[in-house]
Specification:
Layout lengths: L1 H5 L5 E12 L3 E5 L3 E6 L15 E9 L3 E7 L13 E4 L5 E4 L5 E4 L9 E4 L3 E2 L2 E2 L6
Parallel strand pairs: 8-9
Antiparallel strand pairs: 1-2, 1-4, 2-3, 4-5, 6-7, 7-8, 10-11
């Protein structure tokens, strides 16, 4: 029938919105224009992240009509330091961070103590379940 040829299928769209998490976990609740629950959380390859309640997050909407949604990222909680292209800086609550530097160095922060060199560790170091004690030879 000629009318059936006149109706076009709805094309897939992609849109984003800024929301605030209301439920944390691997499936989150987010308040954008209204609350949406059970949204999956996506991150870059090899990176697992769960947004905290009240975090400002990026919600990606896709599919016909934008009904398929997911949480793709969050606004930094702190001022992120300048990093060189290709470097990776991951930070979490309490000042904890992992910084993979372009020169091959690794900086790990988990407290207030710092050991300088190729590997910088702040906090308690445990090796094979035992607290690390430097050799006093």
């Amino acid at each position: 029938m000629w009318l059936s040829r006149q109706i076009k299928p709805v094309s897939a769209t992609a849109d984003t919105d800024l929301g605030v998490t209301t439920i944390s976990g691997q499936k989150v609740g987010v308040m954008t224009r209204g609350e949406v629950r059970d949204l999956p959380v996506y991150g870059p390859g090899g990176y697992l992240w769960t947004p905290a309640n009240g975090a400002a997050v990026l919600v990606v909407k896709g599919g016909p009509g934008g009904e398929e949604q997911c949480v793709a990222g969050t606004r930094p909680l702190e001022e992120v330091k300048e990093i060189a292209p290709g470097e990776v800086y991951i930070y979490g609550p309490g000042g904890n961070s992992l910084y993979l530097k372009q020169d091959g160095g690794v900086e790990i922060r988990a407290g207030q103590v710092s050991v300088t060199g190729g590997l910088s560790i702040t906090g308690q170091l445990t090796v094979n379940g035992q607290s690390y004690q430097p050799c006093s030879c």
